């Protein structure tokens, strides 16, 4: 007998259709109760939280329910003298939150409300001689930051500011024998890192370095009997991985290799019919992060009540196209 597969069972009572309006109401009310325990403990990722919430509202066609002026003012207050942007007012700048801020401003067509030249300098100064990127001044290197840097500059149309050739070389040193990518050279493949590396290569038009058959195979093996996808072998399925795996498959032209009907069923089962929103797995607590990736995943699977999503930027395709950004997908 082989090792038992780690998986979940979808209960018979699980939802089978999309409760779109409940998700809109859930996101619209999230963050309006500012003394909420949950709201307070998530301050360290407030900027990304706003990106998740605003992006999913845009994909569901209800971005106008959010307070645009308040959001823009908040982002302005989070930009530092060095150009970088923090998670919240008074928090240190980091590439992760700088990208979230740029994504939000792109949704609102309002990048001119912050100092773009300084953002570009901030990103440029985080690039190292080997082509890698630090996430902030503390010097942690991770392929996630290579994606953040390139995505951020692409949205600002300033990719010329960095050394792309070295940036690509570094990402390729993190490619493994299984076709996947890790966070640093020699690190094991993980679907979150694969998404970042594949996305980064797509933005700079270098996807030909990828062995799409080998990587596609590894990604498809993430699908479990429940239909859900895990992030790496021996892990439980999770809605956010359905996004990272599915988007990577879309970028390398292999999305048809997974069982779409079963994955759709798994994602729909992660909705909470009382509160709205999606959880990581059926029956767990919902949050804005998994709500975005649940909706974005369903969009890639062809759900027509949701706007088509761009698999690289995880933003509405119409926003990316409207900005004149062309991407090479396989
Ligand atoms: Zn998750």
UniProtKB/TrEMBL annotation:
Pfam families: Prenyltrans. Residues 20-315 form the Prenyltransferase alpha-alpha toroid domain. It is an enzyme of class 2 (transferase). Its cofactor is Zn(2+). It comes from the Eukaryota. CDD domains: GGTase-II. The keyword Thylakoid does not apply. GO terms for cellular component: Rab-protein geranylgeranyltransferase complex. Its EC number is 2.5.1.60. InterPro entries: PGGT1B-like (IPR045089), Prenyltrans (IPR001330), Ptb1 (IPR026873), Terpenoid_cyclase/PrenylTrfase (IPR008930). Keywords: Metal-binding, Phosphoprotein, Prenyltransferase, Repeat, Transferase, Zinc. Belongs to the protein prenyltransferase subunit beta family. Catalyzes the transfer of a geranylgeranyl moiety from geranylgeranyl diphosphate to both cysteines of Rab proteins with the C-terminal sequence -XXCC, -XCXC and -CCXX, such as RAB1A, RAB3A, RAB5A and RAB7A. Catalyzes the transfer of a geranylgeranyl moiety from geranylgeranyl diphosphate to both cysteines of proteins with the C-terminal sequence -XXCC, -XCXC and -CCXX. This is Geranylgeranyl transferase type-2 subunit beta. It comes from Mytilus galloprovincialis.
């Amino acid at each position: 007998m082989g090792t038992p597969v780690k998986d979940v069972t979808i209960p018979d009572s699980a939802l089978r259709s999309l409760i779109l309006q409940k998700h809109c109401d859930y996101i619209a009310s999230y963050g309006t109760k500012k003394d909420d325990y949950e709201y307070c403990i998530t301050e360290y990722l407030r900027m990304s939280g706003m990106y998740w919430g605003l992006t999913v509202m845009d994909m569901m066609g209800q971005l106008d329910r959010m307070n645009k002026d308040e959001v823009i003012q908040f982002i302005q207050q989070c930009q530092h003298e060095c150009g970088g942007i923090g998670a919240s007012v008074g928090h240190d700048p980091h590439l992760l939150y700088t990208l979230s801020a740029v994504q939000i401003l792109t949704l609102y067509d309002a990048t001119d409300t912050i100092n773009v030249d300084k953002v570009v300098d901030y990103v440029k100064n985080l690039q190292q001689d080997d082509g890698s990127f630090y996430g902030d001044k503390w010097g942690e290197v991770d392929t996630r930051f290579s994606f953040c840097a390139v995505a951020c500059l692409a949205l600002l149309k300033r990719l010329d500011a960095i050394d792309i050739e070295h940036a690509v070389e570094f990402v390729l040193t993190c490619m493994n024998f299984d076709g996947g990518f890790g966070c640093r050279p020699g690190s094991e493949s993980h679907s979150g890192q694969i998404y970042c590396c594949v996305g980064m290569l797509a933005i700079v038009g270098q996807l030909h370095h990828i062995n799409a058959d080998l990587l596609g195979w590894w990604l498809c093996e993430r699908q479990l009997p429940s239909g859900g996808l895990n992030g790496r072998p021996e892990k439980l399925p999770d809605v956010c991985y359905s996004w990272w795996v599915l988007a990577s498959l879309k970028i390398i032209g292999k999305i048809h290799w997974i069982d779409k009907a079963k994955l759709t069923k798994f994602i729909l089962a992660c909705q909470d019919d009382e509160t709205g929103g999606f959880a990581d797995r059926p029956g767990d607590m919902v949050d804005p992060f998994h709500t975005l990736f649940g909706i974005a995943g369903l969009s890639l699977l062809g759900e027509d009540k949701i706007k088509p999503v761009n698999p690289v930027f995880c933003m509405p395709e119409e926003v990316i196209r409207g900005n004149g950004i062309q991407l090479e997908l396989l």
